[in-house]
Amino acid sequence: MDRGAAPEPVTERFREAFRRYPTGVALICAAGPEGPVGLTASSVASVSLAPPALSFSVMGTRSARLLLEAPSFVVHLLGRKHVDLARAFAQTGGARFVPEQGWRTLPSGEPILPSALAALRATPLHLVPVGDATLVVASVVEVFHGPDDGALIHHARAFATSSPLPEET
């Protein structure tokens, strides 16, 4: 840390701190009133095993508002082959839910991506407004496993893949 540098606002330093922290990448999708909705998220976390629960946060975008109104949604944990899909869902106007992406529909109505590392169907337990975001805590009601393709990671404003480190000897 450069203690001689001019102080920056905490929000900018906070943003920069999390750019340095790699996270997994997820697509969170739901059945909206006018069709499927979804967004890319890097804030997904496991909260509890018993009962199974997860959390994520969203900002006030149109897709986020529709997700927050949905009675259930699917959190897709993405693998390395999903980088184009993650980019499409991260930008306004990106291709979403097109046949080439391999989407299916669950009997409960949500879109599901069978090629995701895992897909977790969940129902909201708590919606907590925090500043300009909403923290969602959700109960996981179904878990689907897809092919293990290696992790997709978001780090320093870019997508990356992981390679395991050699075992310690």
Automatic annotation (TrEMBL):
EC number: 1.-.-.-
Cross-referenced Pfam families: Flavin_Reduct
Spans through the membrane: none
Alphabetical list of PANTHER family matching this protein: FLAVIN REDUCTASE, FMN REDUCTASE (NADH) RUTF
Cross-referenced InterPro entries: Flavin_Rdtase-like_dom (IPR002563), NADH-dep_flavin_reductase (IPR050268), Split_barrel_FMN-bd (IPR012349)
Origin superkingdom: Bacteria
Protein name, entry field: Flavin reductase family protein
Source lineage: Bacteria, Bacillati, Actinomycetota, Actinomycetes, Micromonosporales
Gene source species: Phytohabitans maris
Chain ranges of the Flavin reductase like domain: 18-161
Keyword field: Oxidoreductase
